[in-house]
Amino acid sequence: MSKVCGLLNGAFRIAWGFVYDALGFKIPYSIVTALQIIVSATFYSSAKYIWSYYITNILENVVFSGHGTIAPPIVSKIFGMKNTVTLIGITGYYIGTAGFVGAVIGKLIIKKDSDFLIVYLIGCGFAVMGFIICLFTKEDKFKYVPIDKEKKDIDNEPKEMDNEKKDIDNEQKDIDNEKKDIDNEKKDIDNAIKDMDSEGKLNEIIKGSVGSSSD
Fold first, then answer.
1. Which of 30, 38, 96, 187 has a 20 to 30 A CA-CA distance from 203?
2. What's this model's pTM, rounded to 2 decimal places?
3. Cβ contacts of residue 53 below 8 Å, gap of 6+?
4. CA distance 54 to 61
């Protein structure tokens, strides 16, 4: 049975992926939570018959595969691709923690076989809450960070880098122009000094000529 359930879990993940791509979030996840209600409510009683037990196990794998397939893209749509891995990791941590805490609480609740029904009904209550939330949730509420917008942002990054490069090149040109202006000013100063030197020598020649004529 475990081998069959493993194969079904993998197969239904692919199926849920196609359903999600075609219909979006609300309808598939409403189906998942509805099936979870059925499984939680009937799992205990299904153990009385081998055929009903097999059917319930198959439905349980349908539910688990649905959660595992549909939840990650919802997280990425709400919080963006950069935060998806972290948040999915946190979710996985709490799933493991819930398994541990649930076992401890179950030990306190379960005193006889019939008490298992209480545990499953508690899970059924959480599934009902999830189903109600799905019914009253609008599809567009899960499009705060659309994938198309992220794709555009990624496509625009090279353009922004090119613009930044152009800005840097323009700044470098401005620096080069300023350097040329400084060099030109330096040349003007040098020429002015040369002119002053030339005027000084001319004055000396004039003074010398005037002194010679006087003699």
1. 187
2. 0.52
3. 46, 47
4. 11
Within the chain, residue ranges assigned H as helices are: 2-23, 26-46, 50-79, 81-109, 116-135, 147-214
The pLDDT, as a whole number, for residue 145 is 47
Q: Could you tell me which of 16, 46, 17, 21 has the C-alpha nearest to residue 32?
A: 16
Residue found by looking up tokens 């019914």 in the block? 135
Tokens representing residue 182 in the block: 């400084």
Q: What is the mean pLDDT of residues 88-113?
A: 74
More reliable by pLDDT, 142 or 15? 15
The encoded tokens of residue 201 equal: 């020598």
Q: For residue 200, give both structure tokens.
A: 């000084």
State how far the Cα of 130 lies from the Cα of 36, in Å rounded to an integer.
10
Q: CA–CA separation, 66 vs 11, rounded Å?
A: 11
CA 64, CA 56: separation in Å to the nearest integer? 12
